[in-house]
């Protein structure tokens, strides 16, 4: 997918609403960001994106990924519609 001009490979974790707009909280596993490349620390790869600003989404083969600090308690979504059931992930 593209978001704000950058190619990204994401693993969606939660979908909901923020101020009346659909928003997705995802873990970015590949691609670029507005800062350039992905941070080396996987705990810093969380992205909150408005769905109506996503361009060209498509499903791709590969493993679904997350990070040790995965949490659905985020201020990026006001009203949660759906979220993945997160397993216990050991810390770093």
How would you describe the overall organization of this protein?
The protein has 92 residues and is mainly beta. It has one domain. Helices cover 0% and strands 41% of the residues. It has no helices and six strands. The protein has strands spanning 2-3, 6-18, 21-31, 46-50, 54-55, 79-83. Strands 1, 2, 3, 4, 5 and 6 form a six-stranded antiparallel beta sheet that branches. Strand 1 and strand 2 (6-18) form a beta hairpin. It is globular, with a radius of gyration of 13 Å.
Radius of gyration: 13 Å
Query: What is the tally of beta strands?
Result: 6
Portion in beta strands: 35-45%
- Mean pLDDT across every amino acid position: 90
Percent in helix: under 10%
Structural class: mainly beta
Largest pleated sheet: 6 strands, antiparallel
Uncertain regions: pLDDT < 50 for 5+ in a row? none
Q: Compute the separation of the termini in Å.
A: 29 Å
Rough outline: globular
Per DSSP, the total helix count is 0
Order of helices and strands: EEEEEE
Q: How many domains in all?
A: 1
Topology:
Blueprint: E1 2-3, E2 6-18, E3 21-31, E4 46-50, E5 54-55, E6 79-83
Antiparallel strand pairs: 1-2, 1-5, 2-3, 2-6, 3-4
How would you summarize what this structure contains?
The chain has 92 residues and is mainly β. The protein has strands spanning 2-3, 6-18, 21-31, 46-50, 54-55, 79-83. The model has no long low-confidence stretch (mean pLDDT 90).
List the keywords.
6-stranded antiparallel beta sheet; 41% strand; globular; 92 residues; mainly beta; 6 strands
């Amino acid at each position: 997918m593209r978001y704000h001009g950058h190619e990204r490979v994401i693993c969606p974790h939660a979908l909901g609403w923020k101020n009346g707009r659909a928003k997705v909280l995802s873990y970015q596993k590949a691609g670029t960001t507005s800062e350039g490349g992905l941070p080396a620390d996987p705990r810093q790869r969380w992205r909150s994106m408005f769905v109506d600003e996503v361009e060209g989404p498509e499903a791709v083969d590969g493993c679904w990924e997350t990070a040790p600090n995965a949490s659905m308690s985020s201020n990026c979504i006001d009203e949660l519609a759906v979220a993945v059931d997160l397993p216990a992930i050991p810390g770093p």
